[in-house]
Amino acid sequence: MPDYHHDGLDPVVRMAEDMVAQFAHRPPDDAAAAVAAHVRKFWDPRMRRRLVTVVDEGADVDPVVVRVAEMLSPGVPAP
Amino acid sequence: MSLLKEPDFGTPARAGEATVEITVDGIGVAVAPGTSVLRAAKDAGIDVPKLCATDSLEAFGSCRLCVVEIDGARGTPASCTTPVAPGMVVRTQTGKLGKLRRGVMELYISDHPLDCLTCSANGDCELQDMAGVTGLREVRYGSGVDAGANHMDLLKDTSNPYFEFDPAKCILCSRCVRACDEVQGTLALTIEGRGFGSAVSPGGTDFLSSDCVSCGACVQACPTATLQEKSVVELGMPTRSVVTTCAYCGVGCSFKAELRGDELVRMVPHKDGGANEGHSCVKGRFAFGYASHPDRVLAPRVRDSIADEWREVSWEEAITHTAQRLRAIQAEHGTGSIGAITSSRCTNEEVYVVQKMVRAAFGNNNVDTCARVCHSPTGYGLSQTFGTSAGTQDFASVADADVIMVIGSNPTDAHPVFGSRMKKRLRQGAQLIVVDPRHIDLVRSPHIEAAHHLALNPGTNVAIVNAMAHVVVTEGLVDRAFVDARCEDVPEWEAFIADPVHAPEAVEEITGVPAADVRAAARLYATAGNAAIYYGLGVTEHSQGSTMVMGMANLAMATGNIGRSGVGINPLRGQNNVQGSCDMGSFPHELPGYRHVSDGSVREVYNELWGVDLLDEPGLRIPNMFDSALDGSFRALFVQGEDIAQSDPNTGHVHAALAALDLVVVQDLFVNETAKFAHVLLPGTSFLEKDGTFTNAERRINRVRPVMPARTGKQEWQIVCEIAQAMGYPMHYDSSAQIMDEIALTTPTFAGVSFAHLDAVGSVQWPCTEQLPGGTPIMHVDGFVRGKGRFMVTPYVPTRERSTRRFPLILTTGRILSQYNVGAQTRRTANVTWHPEDVLELHPHDAEVRGVTDGDRVELSSRVGTTSLRARISDRMPVGVCYTTFHHPVSGANVVTTDNSDWATNCPEYKVTAVQVTPSTAPRAAASAHERTTVGAAGA
Ligand code: SF4
Ligand code: SF4
Ligand code: SF4
Ligand code: FES
Question: Where are the alpha helices (DSSP H) in B54-110?
Answer without folding.
Answer: 95-110
